[in-house]
Structure formats: C-alpha cells, structure tokens
Design goal:
Layout: H1 13-24, H2 29-36, H3 42-54, H4 72-121
Helix pairs in contact: 1-2, 1-3
Length: about 140
C-alpha cells in the first residue's frame, strides 16, 4: 500500500518493452526485475496483461491530458489500432445483418414457388396483389 509522500518510480516505454521481450523469452519475473532494476516485481505482471490486451499501446503512459502527443508515431499507432477494431466491428455487424436478411428472405422464397405453381394452373388469385374480400 502506498504511503503518504511516497514517490513512485516511472519506467520508459523502452524499458517496459524490453522487460516484456525478456519475459516472452522465458526469463523469470525476478531475473527480469533484477536485470532492468525494476523495484516492484508485480509491475511486470501488470505490463504483461496490458501488452496481451492492447499490444504496444498498452505499455504507453496515457495519464493526464495532453494537448499534443509527444510522439506522433504513437498517436498514429493508436489510430491504426482503433481503425482495425472498428473494421472488425463493421465486418461482424455486416455479417449479422446479412444473416438476418437471409432468414427473412427464406420465408419469401417459400411463397414464390407457390405463386408460380398457381399461375401455371391459371388461378386468378395467383397474382402478387393481395386478395380482397370483394374477389371472394
């Protein structure tokens, strides 16, 4: 638990990235923390989780309100990630709409053969206009 007046050590993006790479190569958290002089070993677990969820963007420090991004490449990567997510969402939505439209068109397709069969028989009710009570 943090104590009043305690200073927290911050780590650069490059240090976090190097720690993740070392963990992915099979080094233990303790050895990585010792090699990179990371005080809190549990930080590595948090970085790994964020890296798995969001990739490199998860390792960036996004605290505070920034009027401009310090590094434009990071901003571009963030926008590319956002675009990729939106494209996936759009594809899923289109697939769902397509499936729904096929389901509703199948009910119409079952009616069409009956109408063509009735036309072959020469029935006056075979046209596509709705049947009114006057015709009956």
């Amino acid at each position: 638990m943090a104590k009043k007046g305690q200073k927290f050590k911050t780590y650069s993006f490059e240090t976090k990235k190097k720690a993740i790479e070392m963990r992915l190569q099979g080094m233990t958290k303790e050895k990585v923390a010792e090699a990179l002089e990371i005080v809190d070993v549990d930080r590595l677990k948090v970085w790994m989780r964020r890296y798995k969820q969001m990739g490199d963007f998860g390792l960036m420090d996004t605290r505070g309100k920034r009027k401009e991004y310090v590094d434009e490449d990071r901003y571009v990567k963030r926008l590319e990630l956002e675009n990729a997510v939106l494209k996936k969402w759009l594809a899923i939505t289109k697939a769902e709409v397509y499936q729904r439209s096929i389901g509703s068109s199948k009910s119409c397709e079952s009616i069409l053969p009956l109408q063509s069969f009735a036309k072959k028989l020469g029935s006056p009710e075979a046209d596509s206009t709705p049947i009114s009570r006057e015709r009956l």
